[in-house]
Sequence to fold (173 residues):
Amino acid sequence: MIETKSKIKDISRSISGECVVSINVPEHILSALEAYISKDLTLRISEYRKKRSNDANAYFWELCGKLSAKLHIKPEDIYRDLIKGVGGNYEVVPIRNDAVDTWIKNWESRGLGWVCETTPSKLKGYTNVLTYYGSSSYDTAQMSRLIELIITECKNAGIETSTPEEIIRITED
Fold:
């Protein structure tokens, strides 16, 4: 698999009627792309989003540990609770009532932050499951929001956090 930041240069049709897409890619991946010439491929295109930094993740867990010690709450519980406040990080899925427990078990097996909540559905025999994505899938903006949430909780508990300048450096890397 090759993953890189690219731009579509042109979309056209060949004489035979095939759609042709030209993509600008960095030169360093050309040799890797040559291995795929004339092969059937699965193509997935999404808008580029800057990935979050490891510093941001480490800072979050540092603060989570401090808050845990102060409040005597497991860091994992704090994390799972804050995930729900990030916004834009969940899907509402109507699930047959008899399949809800299995759905939740499978979803939450993806990682610590992959959380579910249930709400009643208007569909008879169904439950709406709010399926939250864990922070391992977050981009920079979502991770920044998660850090904002932990900072607010820490300040409310009287725990010192980094300066605003340091926080910006950590979350924008």
User: Anything to note?
Assistant: The chain has two domains: 1-48, 54-172. The CA atoms of residues 155 and 161 lie 7 Å apart.
